[in-house]
Amino acid sequence: MADMKSHEIDYVILGDDMQAVEIELDRGETVIAEAGVMNYLEEGISFQSKMGDGSEPNQGVLGKLFGAGKRMLAGESMMITHFTNTGAGKQKVCFAAPYPGKIIALDLAQLGGEIIVQRDGFLCAALGTKLDIAFTQRLGAGFFGGEGFILQRMQGNGKVFVHACGTIIKKELRGQTLRVDSGCLVAFTPGIEYNIARAGNLKSMIFGGEGLFLATMKGTGTVWLQSLPFSRLANRILEFAPKAGGASAEEGGGMLSGIGNMFEQT
C-alpha cells in the first residue's frame, strides 16, 4: 500500500466521446499524471517531472529508477509529472486521453485500496497513489492474453483516473465467470482472478475471428470493459492507410486507379 494519505482532489469529466478530466486543487495539493496528457492549466499550477510517484517520500534513487523501469514495462513513460497548486485559492488543471474514448474515475478508498488496470491505461491520480506493475497469476496468460501479461496495480486511498477506448461497460461478478476479448479489458478489482481459455474448438479458434484465446474473469468484484480496444482501432486505420510508395489502401487505390484509367481513355 502507499505510505501516505492521498490528496483529496475535486474533479469534473468534460465531453462525451473524447473526454477530458478537469481537476481542481486547493493550495498545496498535487495530482500526478502520465507524461504528455496535460491539456491546460491555470496560472497558479506549477509542474515538475519526477521519476517517483510521490507515494514514498523517503524512497531512494535506486528505488525510483526501479519504479521507472517497471512503468516502462507497463507501457507508461519513465517520468511522472507532478502538478501542484502553488498559487492563491483553488486552481484547475485538465488532462485528456491520447485517443478517443472515456475516462473512468475510481475512488480507491471505496475499492479496498487497490485496482488492477490494463497496461498504458493510467491517466492521472491524486498524489499518494502508488503505481506498480502486476503480473498475471499464470504465465500462460502472458503468452496468449493478447495485450501482454503485464498489468498495472494502483494502490492508495485517493482518486485515480483511467482512460479507455469506446464505450465503458461495467460488470459486477458474484462468483461467476466472464469471458472477454483480452483487449477489451480495462480494469478489475483484486477479488477477480485473471486467466485465459481457448476460444472454443479448433475451427472456432482458427476461423472465428476472435483470436485463439479469451481472457476469463472469475470471482467476486467489478470488471470494467471497453467496447473498442485501441489496438483494434489502430489495425483498422492501418488497413486503409496509404501503402509504401504513395499508393492508397487496396480498396481506395484500386478505385482511384480505375478512375484514372477512365480519364486516360477519354
Question: Quick summary of this structure?
Answer:
The chain has 266 residues and is α+β, with helices and mostly antiparallel strands. It is 19% helix and 41% strand. It has 2 domains: 10-228, 4-Layer Sandwich (Double-stranded beta-helix); 235-265, no CATH class.
Write the layout of secondary structure elements.
Layout: E1 10-14, E2 20-25, E3 30-34, E4 38-41, E5 45-50, H1 61-73, E6 80-85, E7 91-96, E8 102-107, E9 114-117, E10 122-126, E11 130-135, H2 139-144, E12 150-155, E13 159-164, E14 168-180, E15 185-188, E16 192-198, H3 202-207, E17 213-226, H4 230-239, H5 250-265
Report on this model:
- The longest helix has 16 residues, at 250-265.
- The protein contains 5 helices and 17 strands.
- The protein is globular, with a radius of gyration of 22 Å.
- Strand 1 (10-14) and strand 2 form a beta hairpin.
- The protein has helices at 61-73, 139-144, 202-207, 230-239, 250-265, and strands spanning 10-14, 20-25, 30-34, 38-41, 45-50, 80-85, 91-96, 102-107, 114-117, 122-126, 130-135, 150-155, 159-164, 168-180, 185-188, 192-198, 213-226.
- The protein has 2 domains: 10-228, 4-Layer Sandwich (Double-stranded beta-helix), CATH 3.60.160.10; 235-265, no CATH class.
- Helix content is 19%, strand content 41%.
- Strands 9, 11, 12, 14, 15, 16 and 17 form a 7-stranded antiparallel sheet that branches. A 6-stranded antiparallel sheet has the order 5-6-3-10-13-8, with no helix packed on it. A 4-stranded antiparallel sheet has the order 1-2-7-4, with no helix packed on it.
- The protein has 266 residues and is an alpha+beta fold.
